[in-house]
Amino acid sequence: MNIFERLQHIDRRIMYALLVVAIAAPLIWRINLPVVVTPAVRGVYDTFDKMPADKIALIVVYWGAGTVAETGPETAAMMRQLFMQNKKFALLPFDPQGSKFATDSAKALAKEYGKKYGIDWVHWGYQPISNLVPLLQSFPGNIKGTFRTDAYGTPMDKIPMMRNVNTLRDIGVVADITSSGELDTWIAYVQATYRDAKGRYRVPMVYGPTAIIAPEGFNALDAGQIQGMLMGMKGAAEYEKLLSAEGFATRAAGALSTSHLLIVVLIILGNIGYVMSRRRGEG
Amino acid sequence: MFDWLSDSHVTTTVTMWIGALGTLAIYSILYKENPAYRLAEHIFIGAAAGYGIFITWSETLKPAWWDQITKGNWYWVFALIAGAMFYFIYSKRYVWISRIIFGTLMGLIAGGAFKAFVGVNVDRISASFKPIAGKGLNAVEIANNLLFIVVLLAVMAYFFFSFEHKTPLRRAPAQLGRWCLMFAFGAMFGFTVMARMSLLIGRIYFLLHDWLHIAR
């Protein structure tokens, strides 16, 4: 077997070992490569930034332990911006694991920024995803009648920040952070259903998908159905840069770049081997 | 006997070690098939199934259904009857009962899907009519919109099957559309690779930072 044939048949275990090294080295020696903020991520920041202080943001959590490396930093970065700008938010989880992760993250950030539950943030309680459509038809017109209590059984009326939050008009931004593809359901039942007199969407929406489903979000972004989008861990790293707050995504950005670089090099090597073998008539 | 588990430091350490050993055992399949991987896989499947059953009861059925009945809202019993109707699909004699509930459900879903299709796509179609001339547009925006329109028309030409793509006038746009689709699939695959790498980085960071304390 000559060198070109070998390039096409590199043992996959060698490739896995190289990948582990490519990821571990930047994490151990803290190799940070530049992070460039894209317009889609800036859109997320600007949307929260423009949210009136008398409204609340709704952070939808539909992700679990399987994608915490991507969606966890996205959720944390959004909550961080809201706490930094003294804005309030409600968590609406559709995954019990995501509910726990997001709550832990909110508690840690609230401690960091001196924020209090019920005054600066609230947890509307886990909802089964099978209930999504009836919920989207119900809560925009009557939030307190739909949810009744928060995650800990406190009636919504007794939660200070919920006193003046009754309908969709009191929500300033909807943020859908998800590892699944239910963005279109939100657009159809919330965005397209509730419009102002000029036909514009009543509530701006931003999207925090995992990278694998991010391409689906570009249609909505281009059509103005969402105002911004984070694209997995990369998007979270860009967002952390905008916030000047280094989190897990920033620490992992170097490893993400080196792993991609390795894959590109391996693809090039494999193709060199393939082309050269064909030229020599060995393919 | 298990008092030591109430110590949060001990619990954290035990949890960390279980997580680390589980991660290593699952990834050991990358080297070759082995008993450690099989053990971890079976534990994971069993734990996931048990967790699923528990969560379905504790987070959905109990608060949304059982607690309602025990509070005196007896009409929630009808939910059980409606749910039980699905199981008549296994009876040749009473299969018609299951058809009632399946038909109702399919009607509801079809209605919802129609609303979702219109709600999502009408705005997207109208957004695809982009201006290529007019006041307030700079050169970059015009070029961007023009590129969008060319790609849109080329891809639609590729999916136009009523004429055979024989003449250059029909073949060229379709070929361009094919190239555009290849670029799109490449970008999608790139996102897929990024997603997989992100998850791997998450686990390696857990091993190096939380478990071994060697990552900063």
CATH topology of the largest domain in chain A: Rossmann fold
Q: How many strands of chain B?
A: 0
Question: Any guess at the CATH architecture of the largest domain in chain A?
Answer: 3-Layer(aba) Sandwich
Class computed from helices, strands and strand pairing of chain B: mainly alpha
Low-confidence segments of chain A, ≥5 residues, pLDDT <50? none
Helix content bin of chain B:
over 70%
**Oligomeric state of shown chains:** heterodimer
Q: What global shape of chain B is seen?
A: extended
The Rg value of chain A, from CA coordinates, equals 22 Å
The residue fraction in helices of chain A comes out at: 40-55%
The total count of strands of chain A amounts to 6
Distance between the termini of chain B: 37 Å
What is the H/E order of chain A? HHHEHEHEHHEHEHEHH
Tally of individual helices of chain B: 6
Question: How would you characterize the overall build of this protein?
Answer:
The complex is a heterodimer of chains A (283) and B (216). Chain A is an alpha/beta fold and 283 residues long. Chain A folds into two domains: 3-31 and 252-279; 39-246, Rossmann fold (3-Layer(aba) Sandwich). Chain A has eleven helices and six strands. The model of chain A has no long low-confidence stretch (mean pLDDT 95). With 216 residues, chain B is mostly helical. Among the domains of chain B are: 1-72, no CATH class; 73-127, no CATH class. Chain B is built from six helices and no strands. Chain B has helices at 8-27, 35-70, 77-85, 95-127, 139-158, 168-211. In chain B, helix 1 (8-27) crosses helix 6. Chain B starts with 7 loop residues before the first helix and ends in a 5-residue tail after the last helix. Chains A and B meet through helix 2, helix 4, helix 8, helix 9 and helix 10 of A and helix 2, helix 4 and helix 6 of B.
